[in-house]
Amino acid sequence: MFAKAVAVSLLTLASASVFAADCSVTVDSTDQMSFNTKEITVDKSCKEFTVKLTHSGNLPKNVMGHNLVISKTADMQGIATEGMSQGLEKDYLKADNAGIIAHTKMIGAPEKETEVKFDTSKLEAGGDYSFFCTFPGHISMMKGKVVVK
Ligand code: CO
After folding, report:
1. pLDDT 10s digits, 75-128
2. Rounded CA separation 46/122 (Å)
3. pTM as predicted
């Protein structure tokens, strides 16, 4: 009886952690101006989704800063271009641009991580979304697809 109860609660714990993993993703960024993935999947069964951004490099924010911004793919270039003129103090981002669905702050050594949590109701299943970094020039390499299912 006791053993059965333990088994059931272990099973519950296991499925709870699997569920939690589906509602967040960790993306690493590097001194080589890259993200470690070209695709993020957001599951609409999650009410909220968390993107954790890590920076595994040694270069500071003013040299190799990275953020992670999510928008419709159609809005991506405009947000990056507008962000360039905002300067490092504003993380190269005009944060009130209506096209921004979610964004982290910009990090660089010695800062190792940051995260952003957003409501998945902002995304439509099957929509064309992307993630990218708005540090000047980085979008050419630092971008990927956000798949919404
Ligand atoms: Co960057």
Report:
1. 999 999 999 999 999 999 999 999 999 999 999 999 999 999 999 999 999 999
2. 12
3. 0.86
CA 94 to ligand 1 center in whole angstroms: 16
CA–CA separation, 7 and 144 (whole Å): 41
* Calculated CA dihedral for residues 122, 123, 128, 134, nearest 10 degrees: 50
- Could you tell me the CA-to-CA distances from 119 to 23, 43, 46, 57 in Å, in that order? 11, 11, 9, 30
Residues around the ion ligand 1 (C-beta < 5 A): 66, 133, 135, 138, 142
3-state helix, strand, coil in the chain (%, to 5): 30, 30, 35
